[in-house]
Specification:
The chain is an alpha+beta fold. It has helices at residues 2-10, 34-43, 67-70, 77-86, 129-145, 173-179, 225-228, 241-281, and strands at 23-25, 31-33, 105-107, 114-116, 126-127, 162-164, 169-171, 191-192, 214-216, 221-223, 238-240. The protein contains eight helices and eleven strands.
């Protein structure tokens, strides 16, 4: 039991304190959830720079450089000029077309150091698929070793066989059918493995069945990690979903504020027009 607890501690993200979800490997060898990393950068004033752009130079020192990133060829001078002129990788604090592009610094919550991510920011990091598989296997082991009981059975309770994210509950087969009657809206609920901790169901990519993480401004479509590396999105402007969501939310908030502030004026004009119509009819 103690060894399992120690293992679980190693599989917890230092930011959200939950098990890793789509972990990214930092140059300092620590890991962090993709969404958590995006939130940390946003909190430090870094809007996402274009992840499709090539880095203009390798990382400053071998200790902060990703091994795979270090093997990439440095772009030719004419390629570099085109990238700078087109404004790739711009973010607050950096002037478009600067001679010495700034790099994104990420404060690692594990080692408390500022890690250099290069000009591409999170776009230069790689998803730690090995750690992701370990987390998934650990979750399956926990589900098998700790039986989850149906929350709706009358005593004696039966073991749960299905979960429902929408209902945030676990059911045995009979109770699932009872609480999701055929022909009702609840019948559309998709069964999941039983669990004690229901997390909100994220948007899924219809093509790759992966969770949506990015938004392509060029195509105006949401996409997952696999969509991002496809050739169809080469040179497209791609941002994290969180950045796109916040930008759209601010735009809608301003629009709503304008509509609400103009509501009284519009109502007055409508009343005046109605009076004019009545007067004209008379």
């Amino acid at each position: 039991q103690t060894s399992m607890k120690n293992m679980e501690r190693e599989l917890v993200c230092p930011v959200c304190k939950e098990m890793y979800k789509q972990p990214l490997a930092l140059p300092c060898t620590h890991n962090v959830c993709h969404v958590c990393a995006s939130e940390v950068l946003l909190q430090h004033g870094h809007l996402c720079c274009d992840p499709t752009s090539e880095p203009t130079s390798p990382a400053a020192t071998p200790s902060t450089r990703s091994p795979r990133l270090g093997r990439r060829a440095v772009p030719k001078p004419d390629r570099l000029d085109r990238l700078l002129k087109s404004g790739f990788g711009t973010y607050p604090g950096r002037k478009r077309g600067a001679v010495h592009p700034q790099t994104v610094s990420f404060p690692c919550p594990a080692c408390q150091r500022d890690v250099d991510l290069g000009e591409r920011g999170l776009g230069s990091l790689f998803r730690n698929l090995t750690l992701e598989r370990v987390v998934e296997r650990y979750r399956q082991t926990i589900n098998i070793s700790a039986a989850i009981m149906c929350q709706f059975c009358k005593p004696p309770q039966l073991e749960a066989t299905k979960g429902c994210t929408e209902c945030k509950s676990s059911f045995c087969n009979e109770c699932f059918k009872l609480y999701h009657p055929w022909g009702t809206q609840k019948a559309q609920h998709e069964p999941t493995p039983p669990t004690l901790t229901f997390r909100p169901k994220g948007l899924m990519c219809p093509e790759h069945k992966e969770e949506v993480t990015h938004y392509c401004k060029t195509c105006q479509r949401l996409g997952c990690q696999l969509c991002r590396v496809r050739r169809t999105h080469t040179s497209h402007k791609i941002t994290p979903v969180l950045s796109a969501y916040q930008a759209l939310r601010e735009k809608l908030t301003k629009s709503l504020a304008y509509i609400l502030s103009s509501q009284d004026t519009v109502q007055t004009q409508i009343a005046e027009l109605e009076e004019t119509v009545k007067h004209t009819e008379v």
